[in-house]
Design brief:
Helix content: 25-40%
Shape: globular
Number of helices: 11
Structural class: alpha/beta
Strand content: 15-25%
Radius of gyration: 23 Å
Distance between the termini: 39 Å
Strand order of the largest sheet: 6-13-7-8-9
């Protein structure tokens, strides 16, 4: 879903920019052709899939399409069947994940009738529903909510927690929720769906919310069944394959990377885990670190996070100092965001090392990589201040945070 949702969101952003261009001296009318958006989404996916296939071929990798099943051990390693049998001394399990379907009354019937769809099915809707209810206010649910809102749906998001975005910074969660509410989205926080009435509504106790379509987006779970995992003896805990820092499972020479190990269920995490696993197979020393993995919510505005939040630092008993800045400290942000309410929060340890960065605003997804590299460098703020940021860029907000921690504060906004 990574690329399809971002392709859809780009079209939504273009329309949003056209319709909200008045403060920038731009007047334009626009409409979103959902069918064309979905057609382009399919083309983008096809292009990227073809590119990966070409890369596999260039690397002399044999790709077998089909349902694979692990049959067990052999004298030379492990046996996997997929049309024919394959043997190898090592096994890397990367079976991914699947949508969580909670035991809500009427859910099975709603999924069968397509009144309700999972987040996967939401990428294939042929029409824009007039009344849309999204169950789950995590990253996927919010991105879909944002797209369908701009496309013309009246969207209601129901989230059992008291805030949206999962474990993102609490203040940024509030800012995001408020920003989306201004766009017309409705939120029912701290509430649970008790029943689905197919074709009519969803119910929260005695309260009914009209719906033409329901998107189920309450999370994903590791896919650990249906491919013979039980034949390996690999240890699982709470539905996920248990792995160590080298992605090794409880069975020697069997590795597991990606969502199937349930650690950090993000595509870029899976990519890095696979590198670590293969390096270990080849005898190259490498370990996986989960301390500062960036995450992004691709809404309008974007949210990007990496490292410790104030809350997580408090849970660990870390002494921290937080620099909180308006994104308007970056001149580029002011130029491109009329009345934007973006913020950046940088969390520092007692030794002035950067431990976390959390932001909401335009270009946040592109800035967060720099924050990740700063955290991984483990350099104190005084050293990081020497990094030269191109001007004007929104990423200069990180430099401003460093100077606000160590001295040399500047007026907001800086020209």
């Amino acid at each position: 879903g990574c690329i399809p949702t971002k392709t859809m969101m780009y079209s939504a952003k273009m329309l949003d920019g056209a319709l909200r261009g008045s403060p920038y001296g731009v007047s334009a009318a626009g409409a979103l052709d959902h069918a064309s958006v979905m057609k382009r989404k399919a083309k983008v996916v096809k292009t990227l899939v073809a590119g990966i296939a070409a890369k596999m071929k260039h690397g002399a990798v044999s790709v077998v399409s089909g349902h694979a099943v692990v049959r067990g051990r052999t004298d030379s390693g492990f046996l996997v069947s997929c049309g024919e049998d394959y043997e190898a001394p090592y096994l890397l399990i990367a079976a991914g994940s699947e949508p969580v379907v909670p035991p809500i009354e009427g859910m099975a019937e709603s999924l069968a009738s397509k009144f309700a769809v999972t987040s996967v099915g939401a990428l294939e809707l042929n029409e824009i529903p007039k009344e849309l209810v999204i169950i789950g206010g995590g990253a996927i649910g919010l991105e879909l909510a944002c797209y369908y809102n701009i496309a013309g749906s009246h969207v209601t998001v129901v989230e059992m927690l008291e805030r949206v975005g999962g474990r993102i910074d609490a203040e940024i969660s509030d800012v995001l929720c408020g920003s989306l509410q201004k766009r017309g989205l409705e939120f029912r926080l701290g509430q649970k769906i008790t029943c689905l009435d197919p074709g009519k509504c969803v119910k929260i106790g005695a309260d009914e919310i009209k719906a033409d379509k329901v998107i189920l987006s309450v999370g994903r779970k590791p896919a650990v069944s249906g491919f013979g995992l039980e034949s390996t003896g690999v240890y699982t805990d709470r539905g996920a394959i248990v792995t160590d820092e080298r992605l090794r499972t409880s069975v020697p020479k069997i590795y597991a990377a990606g969502d199937v190990n349930g650690k950090v269920m993000l595509a870029h995490t899976a990519h890095r885990e696979a590198e670590v696993a293969v390096n270990d197979m080849l005898g190259r020393r490498d370990v996986m670190s989960y301390d500062s993995i960036p995450s992004v919510i691709y809404t309008i505005p974007e949210v990007a996070c990496v490292g410790e939040t104030e809350e997580s630092a408090a849970e660990k008993g870390l002494g921290i100092r937080t620099v909180r800045l308006s994104m308007r400290y970056a001149g580029r942000y002011v130029a491109e965001n009329e009345g934007g309410d973006g913020i950046c929060k940088a969390v520092f340890g007692p030794d002035n090392r950067l431990l976390g960065v959390h932001m909401i605003g335009g270009s946040a997804s592109e800035i967060i990589l720099s924050a990740h590299m700063m955290i991984e460098s483990r350099l104190p703020a005084e050293n990081l201040k020497k990094i030269i940021f191109p001007h004007p860029t929104t990423g200069e907000i990180l430099r401003e945070a460093l100077f606000n921690l160590t001295g040399g504060e500047r007026e907001c906004p800086r020209a």
